[in-house]
Design goal:
By secondary structure, this protein is mostly helical. It folds into 2 domains: 64 residues, Arc Repressor Mutant, subunit A; 155 residues, GntR ligand-binding domain-like (Four Helix Bundle (Hemerythrin (Met), subunit A), Up-down Bundle). It is 72% helix and 3% strand. The chain is built from 12 helices and 2 strands. The chain has a two-stranded antiparallel sheet with strand order 1-2. Helix 8 crosses helix 10. The longest helix has 25 residues. GO terms for molecular function: DNA binding; DNA-binding transcription factor activity.
Length: 233
């Protein structure tokens, strides 16, 4: 382990233990180096790394603070990593989505408010209106699912699923579905998800979401097979 990695580990442990709780201001750099028993260079690099990771907030002229440690901050880099994935890794990602999204949709069916449901319906209508516009379809598709998962009230789950739902991959799938004249089927599946939510039917919500994600996964597997698994998105 490098000195910088050790400094990162020690600062993270101080945050985890509550020595520096969310929102707390860290000691000045020279005081922090004394507490950690390390030189300034690795401590400075550790602070930079933890700032990039969303753990620390370096405020010029004020000091360094622990962030709110909200999932939206700590998992913010997930989406960028997903956009770089290719080949079989994308299939693994779809498997993860297939495992998580139906369960999250079922949970949303038990918790969704009238206001949340109205937002889901708004994006559903926009998707049907944009049936021939792949970019607009993709935008409202992502917003539809984000609204559904947000209705669970689980910020970590919402951030995680939003992160693994690659915008580039969604666009490629929608483009393929449109070219294959399969878009109406996918739109119908979204309607089924909305109806299950409106009925507060968790079982139906799980089933319709599973069918929907499964449709996208099958399309991806088929098109990657045609390209010998080398497709990039």
């Amino acid at each position: 382990m490098s000195l910088t990695d050790e400094a990162i580990s020690r600062i993270r442990e101080l945050v985890r233990s509550g020595r520096f709780p969310a929102g707390a201001k860290l000691p000045a750099e020279h005081e922090l180096t004394v507490e950690l028993g390390m030189s300034r260079s690795p401590v400075r690099e550790a602070v930079k790394a933890l700032a990039l990771a969303g753990v620390l907030d370096v405020r010029r002229g004020d000091g360094t603070y622990v962030t709110s440690l909200a999932p939206s901050l700590l998992l913010a880099g997930l989406g960028s990593a997903v956009e770089l994935m290719q080949g079989n890794t994308l299939l693994e990602l779809m498997e993860v989505r297939r495992l998580l999204e139906p369960a999250a949709t079922a949970l949303a069916a038990t918790r969704i408010s009238e206001a949340d449901l109205a937002v889901v319906h708004e994006h559903l209508q926009a998707m049907h209106a944009a049936a021939d516009d792949v970019e607009l379809l993709n935008f409202h598709d992502a917003a539809f699912h984000r609204a559904v998962i947000s209705a669970t009230g689980n910020e970590a789950l919402t951030t995680l699923l939003d992160g693994i739902s690659s915008r580039t991959l969604r666009a490629r799938v929608w483009r393929g579905m449109t070219d294959d004249n399969a878009a109406p089927l996918t739109l119908a599946q979204h309607t089924g998800i909305y109806q299950a939510l409106a009925d507060s039917d968790a079982a139906a919500a799980h089933a319709t979401a599973l069918i929907h994600v499964g449709t996208s996964e099958r399309w991806l597997r088929g098109h990657m097979a045609e390209g010998d698994g080398e497709a990039t998105f």
